[in-house]
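tokens incoming
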């Protein structure tokens, strides 16, 4: 990404003394990668001649090389989780400010000489490449922070064995969340199955006062990506605390003397009403 300027300059007579004193050495230092030293030398020349076309363009060139060498586009960090978003956003904003500083030096040179080929090429390169990239990344990161501001990717669980209550965190991306998974209780280390979704339909039969036996429930739940599944089971309890639209989480124990999980859920944790019902 580093740029070598191909521009040739005619140095005005009055700048010649400063060119010989600082300018020449600045170009040598810059060309050998000592950008910071070069920039300081150009600053000495610019202090005396703020409109030196040569010093402005060459300083911009080496300043750009300095930031590009430190913050190569390949090294643009991506946030690994939501906590990192502000830090990485700041990194991009700082980078954009540095690119703008570079462009303002080039604009100043172009005001003096609109035909300065080195300034035209470098400005064009910055606008089309790193500036364009950083603007896209900023837009993306601002999208992330507004979209996910109110979402926490956790799921409250209660172990069906030891009744340990805890929050399972899925990481910070929505894509990390799971709808149907095997969980290991952090307290008793037993495995249970978890099924998460939204109730789209539920029906019960035999919940009347005069009914006998356990009521049969038919529950349809939909996961995040819209897949639905139906659970049909008998409950030992008369009333499950559920209604259509509730976000729920079923837990399933293992069958006795088997490594398979029972088809009948053990309990429903209703995240919408914050209730826990045994089935
Ligand atoms: Zn447990």
């Amino acid at each position: 990404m580093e740029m070598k300027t191909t521009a040739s300059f005619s140095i005005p007579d009055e700048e010649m003394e400063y060119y010989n004193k600082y300018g020449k050495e600045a170009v040598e230092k810059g060309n050998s990668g000592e950008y910071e030293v070069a920039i300081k030398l150009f600053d000495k020349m610019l202090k005396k001649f703020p409109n030196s076309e040569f010093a402005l363009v060459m300083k911009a060139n080496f300043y750009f090389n300095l930031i590009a060498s430190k913050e190569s586009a390949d090294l643009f960090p991506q946030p690994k989780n939501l906590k990192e978003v502000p830090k990485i956003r700041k990194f991009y904003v700082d980078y954009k400010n540095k690119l703008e500083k570079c462009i303002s030096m080039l604009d100043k040179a172009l005001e003096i000489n609109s035909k300065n080929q080195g300034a035209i090429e470098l400005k064009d390169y910055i606008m089309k490449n790193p500036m364009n990239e950083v603007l896209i990344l900023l837009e993306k990161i601002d999208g992330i922070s507004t979209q996910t501001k109110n979402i926490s990717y956790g799921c409250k669980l209660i172990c069906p064995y030891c009744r340990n209550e805890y929050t399972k965190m899925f990481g910070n991306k929505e894509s990390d969340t799971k709808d149907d998974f095997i969980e290991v209780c952090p307290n008793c280390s037993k495995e249970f199955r978890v099924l998460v979704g939204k109730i789209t339909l539920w029906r019960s039969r035999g919940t009347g006062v005069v009914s006998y036996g356990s009521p049969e429930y038919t529950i349809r739940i939909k996961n995040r990506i819209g897949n639905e599944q139906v659970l049909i089971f008998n409950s030992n309890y008369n009333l499950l605390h559920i209604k259509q639209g509730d976000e729920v989480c079923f837990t399933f124990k293992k069958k006795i003397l088997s490594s398979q999980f029972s088809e009948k859920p053990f309990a429903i944790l209703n995240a919408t009403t914050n209730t826990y019902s045994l089935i």
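note: The beta strands are 154-158, 165-169, 180-184, 191-205, 216-222, 228-234, 247-252, 267-270, 275-278.
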